[in-house]
Amino acid sequence: MINSARTLVTVFFTLVSLLILTPVGAQTVPTSQQQIKLSFSPIVKQTSPAVVNIFTKTIVKERSVPSLFNDPFFKRFFGNNLPGKERNRMGKSLGSGVIVRSNGLIVTNHHVIDKATEIQVVLADRREFSAELILSDEGTDLAILRIDTEGEELPTLELMDSDTIDVGDLVLAIGNPFGVGQTVTSGIVSALARTQVGVADFQFFIQTDAAINPGNSGGALVTMDGKLLGINTAIFSSSRNGGSVGIGFAIPANMVRTVVRSAEEGHELVRAWPGILGQNLNSDLALGFGLSRPGGVVVSSVYQGGPADIAGVEAGDVILSVAGKEVIDVESLRFRIATVPIGDKVQLKLWRDRKASTITYTAAPAPETPARNRREVRGTSPLAGALIANLSPALAVERDLGSMWEGVIVTDVARRSPAHQISLQSNDILVDLNDTPIKRVEDVEVALSKKTPTWRIVIRRDGRLQNLEIKR
């Protein structure tokens, strides 16, 4: 009895001290059975009607190859030109989506609907609709669909400012994992600004430990006030079936907002472009620049006439923040610039001559200069069958070529053509042809007009130079 009384007194004074010492509105751990029984049910009831299931059908081309030619010996010499018949097969996939506008505008992942010939949306109340693809962007892995509600207003999720979230905040993931039906899982924000995930061109993901599995792609990551924090996109998995191991990634709502805006305005998605080349500021560089810690982007070159050049950015500057948001590395700089609406002005914080300064950057797209001037190479040369074009910042962005701003690029290669036979590939950059430097499409035409017993071709592929020599 005495021990029980002492325990009760201890619990009482512990609760009193918590009430006295805990500030109003501060986050605390549960201290009673009643608090432990708290439920996410009200948030789920509020948000889940805006999360939909998406089913797609895709025509997949398959080539039936005789078993004899499956031998590695034949594959080595024939490559993709093995004999056989092509046939079409109907492929099916599933995913999730989020209604963001009451008139039926839905956000999902690009990879959920990529190459789909038919898209079906199933609402939380089990009604089914055929969906129209409005916009799809591989770079952000986002797509916008629309269903015809015939004037009926649907439940929606409001996009929040994803920069206001903190690591440790509670979140819910809602989607359709493995096609079992709408499912809710809970967790916390595990990390922010993940830039080394490798599932999209614009890498700046919110990491969560809320269980995300195949079929959750395109679903909602929801905060405790019932707002859309992000679109669930990818998981890290060590198992063959792709099951969750507690590391999931979501595209932040601030990037989602830019894609939704383009879809509503009815134009092609055009993102703001930094117009610089740079590298991450590591510890050694930070010491050399007189900064106390790493983090930021060291500008190595600026595209003349581009938005950064007009703003006054110079080679040797360190970009520290965009619109007051810290820049951690090159990927985070691309993300921050890409979420600024074209024409808007934001402040860039720079480190120059060992002191901080601020300049005004006006968001602008990558320029289409020079014009592409697409041509198909014809005739009997080794390049015949290649489709070539002048490189520009806009084309480099379109093809995710990074710093390749100028030159002549191979955009496509016809099957069984001479260019295909010498293994020329899409995105190869023509550097030199028969000792003629290649800067424009016209240079290729001039070089091909010269008679020579041997073709000498220099290309840049994946950042490396390759030399080809073909005898006539």
Summary keywords:
4 domains, Thrombin, subunit H, Pdz3 Domain, disordered N terminus, single chain, 472 residues, alpha+beta, 25 strands
Give an overview of the whole structure.
With 472 residues, the protein is an alpha+beta fold. It folds into 4 domains: 47-147, Trypsin-like serine proteases (Thrombin, subunit H), CATH 2.40.10; 162-265, Trypsin-like serine proteases (Thrombin, subunit H, Beta Barrel), CATH 2.40.10.10; 276-362, Roll (Pdz3 Domain); 375-471, Pdz3 Domain, CATH 2.30.42. It is built from 12 helices and 25 strands. The chain has helices spanning 2-21, 33-36, 41-47, 72-78, 110-113, 253-265, 283-289, 307-311, 330-338, 393-398, 418-421, 441-448, and strands at residues 51-64, 85-101, 105-108, 118-122, 128-137, 142-147, 170-175, 183-194, 205-208, 220-223, 228-235, 248-252, 276-280, 297-302, 318-322, 325-326, 345-352, 355-362, 375-376, 386-390, 408-413, 429-433, 436-437, 454-461, 464-471.
Low-confidence segments, given as residue ranges, are 1-22, 73-78
The residue-averaged pLDDT reads: 83
Per the principal axes of the C-alpha atoms, what is the gross shape?
globular
Helix content: 10-25%
Number of strands: 25
Oligomer: single chain
SS strand fraction: 25-35%
Number of helices: 12
The level 1 CATH classification of the largest domain is Mainly Beta
In the CATH hierarchy, the third-tier topology of the largest domain is known as Thrombin, subunit H
Main β-sheet, in a few words? 7 strands, antiparallel
